[in-house]
UniProtKB/TrEMBL annotation:
Domain of life: Bacteria
Species name: Zobellia uliginosa
InterPro entries documented for this protein: SusD-like_N, SusD_RagB_dom, TPR-like_helical_dom_sf
Record's keyword annotation contains Membrane: yes
Keyword DNA damage set for record: no
Record localization: Cell outer membrane
Protein name: Starch-binding associating with outer membrane
Record lineage: Bacteria, Pseudomonadati, Bacteroidota, Flavobacteriia, Flavobacteriales
Protein family: Belongs to the SusD family.
Residue span, SusD-like N-terminal domain: 83-225
RagB/SusD domain: residues covered: 323-482
UniProt cross-references to PROSITE patterns, sorted A to Z: PROKAR_LIPOPROTEIN
């Protein structure tokens, strides 16, 4: 752990252009000697951000893992499926809702989440010691650490329902396990952390700190968390504040949100930063294994694949593919479809052999005749966005977009007895960008909202968690659904380590 934090500090110093580094050898660095300067604390903060990169793009170079979070957030949904010819066995089981606590994805996600929380807690604990920080520095760094701790706990709550609440650094090796927290405890802690973050973070950072959390991002998460909590009045107030007074706007073109040319754009509330030899354009580009986006190398169309890929250019083809059900969810004329799904005859772009290859898309390249296009396409099939071996890219992942926030605001208005006409207005704003007309306001507003959210956020990691909280699993999955799937299983390894202190979710 200390090694990663020191690495973070070194990278921070280098990114700031410092010529000389006077660092103690790793075997002589302790908390007493490290947590002193603003650079030290920035490095430790970036280590927590790094866990977000690893959560999204866990690689085979860590624990034999391959895009595990993608499996339990996207493949598990009705938007995507595991390619039956190149997808691994666990992916194909998850696609069928065969969910086992012993499978790698649950332990992988759990580990990365609590690693990120631990790193944030280390920062908060050491802020109280002797250091060179000004009071302003302490306020900002403390607020940022709380944003990250709240962010990770929120991901754990969405996945596991009643995960442990970790708000301190435990050092007794005989007392490391934590019990399940109640949802009331989790919501109180998460919202408290985001409130402190909103109060202490800047509204924006300078260009050398691109991608760090802002007060507006924290305010946005307060709204989103309250939607999950079903505290509709509080959600409406928080989301309305961001909609009316925040710095965000819808990008002119839907495709702008997924192009490497428009990272950290005006629609992006929070995105996972990636970078590498060609695009070190932000300050937390490193992760614990690689700086590229492994989602691209292991989950989507232009993926690296060991072996033939039914003739796909460069042998590159995704493990996870859009479902036919998702394809059929789009209305005629919806411009978002062209950005999201490759279909027969479209120009297919791939970076192969150090050049862009263009061929008509062939349905034989996929087990259902479709392939993912979001984050891919012409703009991203370029060397400036590729790792040297062409296997992965450096494009950021837009985790929370303003379009989603507007739809959350619409949902809160509908569910909370607010102005339904205003909710339809928010939905129509997003439809207008997609080239579609206003919705029929005689329809059930929640049906409209759920449909619009699905196609707007297709193949982004939200759909399954929406299905679970909306209680529509049986409607979507039919007889394969069991209400226990509203939450995922705690990893069996964690149950065993805790000696029963951590209780498994019912039914697993």
């Amino acid at each position: 752990m200390k090694k990663y934090i020191i690495l973070a500090s070194v990278l921070f110093a280098l990114s700031c252009g410092e010529k000389e580094l006077d660092l103690l050898p790793l075997d002589r660095v302790t908390a007493d000697t490290f947590y002193k300067t603003r650079g030290d604390f920035d490095g430790a903060i970036f280590a927590s951000y790094s866990s977000i990169q690893d959560l999204w793009g866990i690689s085979a170079e860590t624990l034999g893992e391959n895009g595990e979070y993608w499996k339990i957030s996207v493949v598990i949904s009705d938007d995507a499926e595991a390619d039956t010819e190149v997808g691994d066995a666990v992916s194909q089981d998850i696609d069928k809702l065969l969910i086992r606590s012993s499978d790698v994805p649950y332990g992988a996600a759990y580990t990365q989440i609590y690693e990120g929380i631990y790193r944030a807690n280390l920062v908060l604990e050491n802020l109280e010691g002797e250091n060179e920080l000004s009071e302003e520095d302490k306020t900002i760094i403390g607020a940022e650490a709380k944003f990250l701790r709240g962010w990770f706990h929120f991901q754990a709550l969405k996945m596991f329902g009643t995960p442990p609440l970790a708000i301190e650094v435990k050092t007794d090796l005989n007392d490391l396990a934590l019990p399940n927290a109640t949802q009331e405890e989790l919501y109180a802690s998460i919202l408290g952390d985001f409130a402190d973050a909103a109060a202490g973070l800047p509204e924006e950072w300078d260009g050398s700190n691109t991608g760090r959390a802002t007060s507006w991002a924290a305010k946005s998460y307060i709204g989103k968390v309250n939607v999950w909590k079903e505290d509709w009045p509080t959600a409406i107030t928080a989301l309305e504040d961001v909609v009316l007074r925040g710095p965000y706007m819808l990008m002119p073109e839907y495709s702008n949100n997924f192009s490497h040319l428009f990272e950290n754009n005006a629609e992006s509330i929070f995105e996972i930063q990636f970078g590498g030899p060609f695009s070190d354009d932000n300050i937390w580009v490193f992760d614990d294994t690689h700086s590229e986006n492994f989602k691209a190398s292991q989950g989507t169309t232009r993926s690296y694949h060991w072996g033939a890929a039914n003739g796909a250019p460069g042998g590159k083809r995704g493990w996870f593919i859009p479902s036919e059900d998702l394809l059929n969810a789009y209305e005629p004329g919806d411009a978002r479809l062209e950005t999201t799904i490759y279909q027969e005859g479209e120009d297919y772009y791939v970076w192969s052999a150090n050049s862009v290859v263009t061929e008509p898309y062939d349905p034989e390249w996929s087990s259902n005749g479709l392939s993912a296009k979001k984050y891919l396409g012409k703009e991203n099939a370029v060397g400036a966005n590729r790792s040297p071996n062409g296997a992965a890219d450096f494009n950021n992942e837009r985790w929370f977009r303003f379009a989603e926030l507007k739809l959350l605001y619409a949902e809160a208005l509908i569910q909370g007895g607010g102005d339904v006409g205003l909710a339809f207005d928010e939905i129509d704003d997003i439809r207008e960008r997609a080239g579609l007309g206003p919705v029929d306001r005689s329809l059930d507003p929640m049906d409209v909202l759920m449909q619009e959210k699905r196609v707007e956020l297709a193949l982004e990691p939200h759909r399954y968690f929406d299905i679970a909280r909306w209680g529509i699993g049986a409607e979507i999955f039919g007889g394969a659904w069991d209400d226990k799937y509203k939450v995922l299983p705690f990893p069996l390894t964690e149950i065993d380590r805790s000696k029963g202190l951590l209780q498994q979710n019912p039914g697993y």
